[in-house]
Amino acid sequence: MIEFKDVIKEYPNGFRAVDNLNLTVRDGEICVLIGPSGCGKTTALRMVNRLIDVTRGEILINGQPNDEFEPEVLRRQIGYAIQQIGLLPHMTIRDNVAIVPRLLDWDEERVRQRVDLLLDMVGIDPGIQGDKYPRQLSGGQQQRVGVARALGADPPIMLMDEPFGAVDPITRAILQEEFLQIQQEVGKTIIFVTHDIDEAIYMGDRIALLRAGRLVQYDTPDDLLALPRDDFVREFVGTDRSLKRLHLISVRDSMMNNVPCCDDDATLQEVTACLDRHHSDSAFVVDAGNGKLLGWVERPALVEYGSLSEAMHHAPAASIAVPEDATAREALSVLLSHSFDLTPVIDAEGVLTGGVSIQRLQDLVEEPGIHAAMQRERGR
Amino acid sequence: MTEATKNGAAIAGWRLPYGALLWLLAALLIFAVGQRTVTLHDQEKFIGDFAFAVEQVKGERRLILNLTAGSFVYGVTPEVILPVPTGRFSRGDPSAPQVAQALFDALNSVSEITIAAQTITVAYQGNMEAEQARSRLRRPVNNAVANDRGTITAQVSAAAENTIVFSTSDERFRYAQYQPALVESIEEYDSRAAAEAGSDLARFIVSESRPLESLRLEPTRLVVGYAEGAALEPLARNLREILNDFHPRASLAPSLWLLTAAPEIIPPLLAIAVEPLETGIPLILFTLLMVAVEAGIFFVIPHKGKNNLLIHLLHIAAVFLLFWSILGHEPLWDAILHAIFPTSAQLVHPQGTVIDFAAQHLELVLTSSIYIISGGLFLGVMVTRENFREFLPLVNNVVNSGQTVPTLAIVAIMAPIIGLGFMPAVVALIAYGLLPVVRNTIAGIESVSVSIVDSARGMGMTSQQILLRTELPIASRIIMAGIRTSMVINIGTATLGAFVGSGGLGIPIASGLSMTVDAFILLGAIPAALLAILTDYVLGRLEVVLTPRGLLIET
Ligand SMILES: Nc1ncnc2c1ncn2[C@@H]1O[C@H](COP(=O)(O)OP(=O)(O)OP(=O)(O)O)[C@@H](O)[C@H]1O
Ligand SMILES: [Mg+2]
Questions:
Q1: CA angle, residues A263, A269, A271, in degrees to nearest 5
Q2: What is the ipTM of this complex?
Q3: Which of B126, B181, B245, B531 is a plausible cystine mate for B109, CB 3.0–4.6 Å?
């Protein structure tokens, strides 16, 4: 647990970069510090491992003030990753990851095992890349090594200052996702600085929004989006905050299980009965044998051709359906692009498991309570 | 795919053992050149003007010539140190020793000179300023005696008027005299035929002198047996001419020279004493050995060889020894200089051989470089520390403007302040050579990006660990470049040390200029240039060796 208690930082020129910050980061949580450039995020972060001294107030780590430690001793227990990565160019990838364990005098065998484990974890092959030098890796690979290095001696706490800031959006998305998976395994207490609200919403268990050194709002992503405290927050999270909230919800949580659907060998009567039952003009068609989505059929076509096999539209599942583990926002995107009322949802095998409608999504973003509940259910 | 392209690919895949081939080339060159024998031309080295006392052996047809002057012994400075004869001498006295003669020559008004063991008292007439007389007379004394300059003081006498007293802290005044020498060891020939098959000198003597029947060469004696009826007077005269005409011949095959350091001198002044050592091992054997070593490295450890520190050091040492051996081979210098200046009477400097000067030069350069490198690194590291950063602009300015002061000016300014000799030259060299090292150390450390230092700090490195494990390794290449620049410049600058009496390759250059012997200028300039090129090569290799591999990757 990391606690900021009435923390004030004044730079020697009198500038107050952090003003009366009170903040508690719970164990195992990712706390995202966000705010406009210059609002004091980096300053707040670097005070935790005493790269910057606190002017007034104190920072407690597991209840103990951080100035009771020698700075070096403190820093070796706290992982630190920065946007510029800062890999030492004269050392191999392995040696870079091994820096903190070696500073802690681990024996070489243990260091080696730890380095292999970490490199594997961040998706760098220790055998192939381990003996290369930082300059021989791509930016994305270097970021991974930077994260592995911060995890070096298995510190309970990690400080990350825009760690994915220097890579292209696609790589960033991959790194974010991978990092969340790693976090699921390691459960560190993390302070994560970013100025990208999407990243904050995606990565954060809680988001602390700062403005000119002051904490404006500290909430879960969903609550921040649903209940912005003031105009500054509202503006900062953006007018598309409803869309962003959809981003937080998975299709699995928002889909309806009961959707109009018929087997591909169904008779005309069976199909019509199904459409009538659902008060719908169209239905999804699935393989009678394995339940995989094959396409859809519309009432006028049925009337015109008189048989399902002739009337149905065949379409590859991937082009019309969304997978269960996609976000509600992706479902919305599919809905908009196909002008469906209902977009089918499939599982990893391609089996139709339900559907998402515009109406349903609208309901979700209108009722904050529901999502807060869902959020909790997802156990994030 | 045709055969031709396949072959092409195969050939492209080959790697040649360049190292071995280069050494083989060197061996072939040394072999080709070493086959030749050259006539040695230097007059200074072989004191012409042989003089001897003739002694006839009664009843035998034998003539003994006892050498009183002249020398053929090559490579050994043919001189002995003798005490200056004491006594009172007046102008025109033929028995006056050399130092007295020099003083009479230097100043016309000198009337009487009294020499005792530790003092030389010079009396002069007229109303000359005492100070002026003292400064006019000091140089001839210094030149004529063998005592170290530092031990001699010159004072205006308080007891007598118009009198200057030179005194030495040595036991007594001494002077140097050439030791006459014909050969190094005795050679004996009892017939003309034997002599014709003998040494160069013996062959020359019998071919030039008809009445000669037997010949014995001793270091200081020439004993000849002559044919019946030969006239002795012309024979003796003839023999002296023969000796004066003879030029020794020498092989151009060099031998291996090593460099040794005398460690006992190191503690007091941190001065490196360098001694050149001739091993007598033919250089060609060494080059052939290197061919084998290179081939071994190439075929046995082809890949490791590229980055192995030891192999780099081996290369550096081998190239140095080759160069050093060539510097040490005096007949080569004699031949080269005679080819360039066929009419020059002096080709080899009287004060020493090329390798002696080169060794002094190295001493000067290495000693000053130790101070330069340690001091420069220290200064550069200091001003980049948090606590001393405020001095950085100051040091930067001093360093940059210091570079613009001409070298000769520094030497000239230093001389009156700290006097003459070895250490003053070292100090002047330090003052000048410090600059590139400090500047590059600062630049190197500043080049380490802030984020790298920040992440090192954030991981919990102490400032010392940051310096040693992060800043210095990353800066090492730039720092090494500074050291390289400094040392190469230093080699050139050290030639100016001759003006403050520090020895080194500047000595032949300076005396060549003052005596207008062009050969001497080259005798200093060529080795100095070679030394600079060699140092550049050695440090260039070291730069590669010492730069961490991760930094050599281009981005
Ligand atoms: N050493 C310093 N002396 C004076 N002012 C400083 C110093 N370091 C930072 N500041 C000021 O403190 C404020 C906060 O800086 P900080 O680096 O914490 O911002 P940030 O929120 O991380 O911004 P960014 O998103 O651009 O990284 C800025 O206005 C900056 O100008
Ligand atoms: Mg910042």
A1: 35
A2: 0.79
A3: B126
